[in-house]
Amino acid sequence: MPAGWDALPRPHVHWHGATFAEVRFVSEGGAAVSYFFEARRRRVSPPRAEVLGVDARRSLVARADGQAIEVVQIFAGRPVARIERPWSDGLSVREAVTAIHFDADGRLTFTWLAGTERRPVTERVTVPSIPPSK
User: Fold this and answer.
1) pTM value > 0.85
2) pLDDT tens digits along 65-78
3) Which residue, of 10, 17, 71, 103, has the fewest CB within 10 Å?
4) Helices (DSSP H) in 7-107: which residue ranges?
5) Are 12 and 20 in contact (CB under 8 A)?
6) d(Cα 44, Cα 80) in Å, to the nearest integer?
């Protein structure tokens, strides 16, 4: 159970593939947490908060983390990318990002709102599968 939650509400299940599912719980206050299940290896992920997009093929998830989009490995939880932009003032990342998806070539395409006029900006960025070496 996620920290601070008394009970889990009714889940929303989305199958990203024949053996890969996301089970999302949304609280009354709008907070969301997802668990991922991979049937072939019989794995269940730790809870992943504020999921924006999923790359089931590479087991990556893009999620809102403070004022950034963080891409992490679903089961290991290791961050592989962090994307910060000048989101429109007064908007959270979840509100500023209006569309997001992983492309087959491993890139992340997302549209976000910029400036006071909330102008939509679309970008494609390369996302690695493993954390960068230090």
Assistant:
1) yes
2) 989 999 999 999 99
3) 10
4) 93-96
5) no
6) 20
